[in-house]
Design a protein that fits this description.
By secondary structure, the protein is of the alpha/beta class. The chain contains eleven helices and ten strands.
Length: 296
């Protein structure tokens, strides 16, 4: 490689882990890396430490020296990057790159899903968020956390299932194989359920979503009601995204695929498979920055 060569780095910095992909200007992947959580709300030191650890692993794979980073344009898709103060803090941080463009992890996922072109994504994982990219601007729907938002997510579905199982255990609602399976995990003990729920985090509630879908496939009436209600909540987000002007929406996240069969057929023409991942979207940002920086 020439000492004048320019490189591109895509970062997907999430709440559970950080991934990096290093390419040359032609898009050839030279190395990839992974590290710990990089959510900006965890603190700038934590986020920067993770993104740099993932970057250096990708650089090590490539066989390029450390000073390559000074000729590398980075696209940073970071969880909480949609919060202005967090984004500004990372942009002001001392990073070793030629340039660093910061967006949220959801925004770069949207760019990746549509190859940098206009479109939308709806992330259905532990949480949920819709992102629409149109007229070179992003608009988000949801994504404000478990207490206020996360409509149609795994955490909301899992909590609804545990609450329904608890009511069945108290003989307020009818039982089903699903409700019995859930209370069995707590030894059929309401106090155990209480202690667990008091300390449960969104990811803990979300672990029950897979069980709900499994029992729904078996025809369990309670499970079917839960997934259908959850799908209706997802449809309301999709309707809002379509109203914002997008015509292509990629469903992403851990419960996207099992949710799709329960969505109304009217959404089928708008739902597409993602063309790429969040690191691909971050590389779009990096490539744009490299073009701006290119000498006349």
């Amino acid at each position: 490689m020439s000492m004048d060569s320019i490189y591109l780095l895509g970062i997907d910095g999430g709440g559970t882990g950080c991934r990096a992909r290093l390419t040359d200007q032609q898009g050839q992947v030279l190395g990839e890396g992974a590290a710990g959580p990089a959510n900006l709300s965890l603190g700038m030191d934590v986020a920067v430490s993770s993104l740099m650890a993932a970057t250096r692993e990708a650089l090590s794979q490539s066989g390029l020296p450390e000073n390559t980073l000074a000729r590398t344009h980075a696209g940073l898709g970071m969880a909480a990057g949609n919060v202005p103060r967090h984004r500004a803090a990372l942009e002001a941080a001392s990073l070793p790159f030629a340039s660093a463009s910061v967006r949220s992890d959801a925004e770069v996922a949207c760019l990746g899903a549509h190859g940098g072109e206009e479109g939308g994504i709806l992330i259905l994982g532990t949480g949920s968020q819709g992102v629409v990219y149109r007229d070179q601007a992003f608009v988000t729907v949801g994504g404000w956390g478990f207490a206020l938002s996360d409509t149609g997510s795994g955490a909301i579905l899992g909590r609804a299932a545990v609450r329904r199982a608890f009511l069945a255990h108290e003989c307020v609602e009818p039982t089903s194989p699903l409700t019995m399976a859930i209370v069995d995990r707590f030894f059929r003990d309401r106090e155990v359920m209480l202690d667990w729920s008091t300390n449960a985090r969104p990811k803990d509630w979300a672990e029950f979503a897979r069980t709900v879908f499994e029992y729904a496939r078996q025809g369990d009436t309670v499970a079917l009601k839960l997934v259908r209600d959850n799908a209706l909540a997802v449809e309301r987000i999709l309707d809002r995204m379509l109203a914002l002007g997008t015509r292509r929406i990629a469903l992403m996240g851990g419960i996207a695929r099992p949710t799709r069969p329960y969505l109304a057929q009217r959404f089928a023409p708008s739902l597409v498979e993602p063309a790429g991942d969040a690191m691909d979207g971050a590389l779009v940002l990096a490539r744009q920055a490299a073009q701006v920086a290119k000498p006349a």
